[in-house]
Amino acid sequence: MGERKTALVTGASRGIGRAIAVRLAKDGCDVAVIYAGNKEAAEETCRMIEENGAKSLAICCDVSDPQQCKDIVKQVMDTFGSIDILVNNAGITRDALVLSMKEEDFQKVIDTNLNGAFYMIKNTYHAFMKRRKGRIINISSISGVMGNAGQANYAAAKAGLIGMTKSVAKELAGRGITCNAIAPGFIQTDMTAVLSDKVKAAVQEQIPMKKMGLVDDVAAAVSFLAGEESGYITGQVLCIDGGLSM
Ligand code: NDP
């Protein structure tokens, strides 16, 4: 990458988001690290970004709150001057079978995983249009592609994210802005650490590559979709899942 760029990554204090933030820093981006409350972890991500010679900015924000999303976009713009790459990665799970899923757990997952991405895109949309370039990358899930028992809320949000990705891609294609989704399978993070060894073994058995993915597997795909060489790819869903969704 020639000139420096600016990236905003939500949920960048831990897991996949941290790996994406650090990878984009290695690629030559200054990075805004958005997190929900885990300040120490966000500061550690910032330290890792700065080790790569990039600038960082950690901001606490609940992406399910439209006003907070508006405020942070302004703060990032004021600090870095632009946003070239938006990565909507923040996400949560509240798993249960539909019969026992609480309404508030359905709503919370939609508000965070789907509405959050909408608020971030809405607030950066005008700036992207004006610059006539940019990359939007939404972290969906293979649950949104295939469905998953116990994840009706999460799969609905992640499938919604895919529909939104394609719509935004169509709206912004003429301006040279791409919008793609990445659908990870089972990746080793805090989110999957809560699964029992029995569940993990069963999942691993189903994966053609017989292993869980690493956060860097996802970060490498984001790096590609955020880079110059992917400029003719938009509205796509890239599964990073060891073949699970085949
Ligand atoms: P983690 O649970 O490890 O990290 C979640 C991140 O999201 C944290 O940085 C957290 O901040 C942040 N976050 C949570 N809620 C909010 C909120 N309301 N506002 C802002 N930030 C928030 O998750 P993963 O790294 O495993 O997952 C990252 C993304 O990848 C998610 O969208 C997830 O659905 C998706 N994914 C993950 C898979 C996996 O196997 N791990 C598979 C498929 C998709 P804080 O640290 O402050 O709490």
Layout of helices and strands:
Elements: E1 5-10, H1 15-26, E2 29-35, H2 39-51, E3 56-60, H3 66-80, E4 85-88, H4 103-131, E5 134-139, H5 142-146, H6 152-172, E6 177-184, H7 190-193, H8 197-206, H9 215-226, E7 237-240
Parallel strand pairs: 1-2, 1-4, 2-3, 4-5, 5-6, 6-7
Helix pairs in contact: 1-2, 1-9, 3-4, 4-6
This protein binds NADPH dihydro-nicotinamide-adenine-dinucleotide phosphate.
Q: Notable features of this structure?
A:
Rossmann fold; binds NADPH dihydro-nicotinamide-adenine-dinucleotide phosphate; alpha/beta; 7 strands; 9 helices; seven-stranded parallel sheet; 49% helix; 246 residues
Fold and architecture overview:
The protein is of the alpha/beta class and 246 residues long. The chain has a single domain (5-239), classed as Rossmann fold, CATH 3.40.50.720. The protein is 49% helix and 16% strand. It has nine helices and seven strands. The chain has helices spanning 15-26, 39-51, 66-80, 103-131, 142-146, 152-172, 190-193, 197-206, 215-226, and strands at 5-10, 29-35, 56-60, 85-88, 134-139, 177-184, 237-240. β4 (85-88), α4 (103-131) and β5 (134-139) form a beta-alpha-beta unit. α1 runs parallel beside α2, α1 (15-26) crosses α9 (215-226) and α4 (103-131) runs parallel beside α6. The radius of gyration is 17 Å and the shape is globular. The protein starts with a strand and ends in a 6-residue tail after the last strand. Residues 10-17, 34-38, 41, 61-64, 89-92, 112, 139, 141, 184, 186-187, 189-192 line the site of NADPH dihydro-nicotinamide-adenine-dinucleotide phosphate (NDP). NADPH dihydro-nicotinamide-adenine-dinucleotide phosphate binds at residues 10-17, 34-38, 41, 61-64, 89-92, 112, 139, 141, 184, 186-187, 189-192.
